[in-house]
Amino acid sequence: MEIIIDATNQTLGRLATKIATTLRGKHLASFEPNQMPGIIVKITNYDKIRFTGQKLRQKEYYHYSGYHSGLKTRKLGELWISRPTEVIRMSVYRMLPKNKMRDKLIKNLKFA
Question: Mind naming one GO cellular-component term on file for this protein (predicted)?
Fold first, then answer.
């Protein structure tokens, strides 16, 4: 099953929750938390997402390399210019359950 979601004029967080619940199959009557539903979600017009407030200037994403002084930060605005699909993928990935199925579920997220 393939579901197409139009991201035009939607905020990032509300769109990510919609994608995460659809990927898990929670909208189906036959939902089971330990089963893979096999739903592929395609996102269209992802470059037209809107951000509320000052998130583009203030929100920061962190990455730690594991070494001393290895914490790197990037602003949402910088990351959005370089890789907008990665911003959406990270927000959906962090909303999925933290177990073995998370890596398998995020592979069903496609960008058109």
Answer: cytosolic large ribosomal subunit
